[in-house]
Known about the structure:
The protein contains 6 helices and 11 strands. By secondary structure, it is of the alpha/beta class.
Amino acid sequence: MTSSDLWSRETAERYDAEERENSSAAVLEPTLTFLAELAGGGRALEFAIGTGRVGVPLRERGVPVVGIELSEHMAAVLRRKVDEDTLPVVIGDMATTVVPGEFALVYLVYNTIANLLTQDEQVECFRNAARHLTPGGRFVVELGVPPLRFLPPGQIAVPFDVSEQHLGFDTFDLVNQTLVSHHFTRDGDDGRYRRGSCRQRYAWPAELDLMARIAGLEVERRVADWEGTPFGPDSGKHVSVWRKPV
Length: 246
């Protein structure tokens, strides 16, 4: 079903080190608080749980978490942190994989819905979320707003990080609504850089609202970050919440 790029063993092994800052307690605190409040003591399902950057500490807060993950290598890294009985993970894609039971919360963080490279797959992801939700349950997506205003005529690339250790920029295919994120990461002290890339399909908040409607979900809330900052025209990302009607 899925057209997502598959994370390799090498990439999975270095993922936590590269995301150390985003995995810190200070950075994760607002995310965990936001999700735990929405779960309300019920079960939570994380699509594309990866190495458990969010799912593991959310489980430590007392929220029963189950994960779906496409990459066996990413799931293997997670499994070193927590056992299967504590945090079950099903290997599969987030658009079609079904796990047993119902959930008060389904969530997708860190732009991962963009890993699905077609609109049809993203719609199926919303349908899959709705399939797992209890009546009144919520689906949460964290996603960047496409930075197309930074593109002057004739330009297709936008930098998003320029530092001593990392150079990152996105190149856009405006016809097919896709982008490729390019990464040049400095390894060690010898001055060499490792190159990597990943493909994504960008989507506007209004398009996601339509996907939610197709799946039978209703818009409940949209904010600019996990702290609840109001979403506006200059927001670089959004955290959106859709609710399954009772």
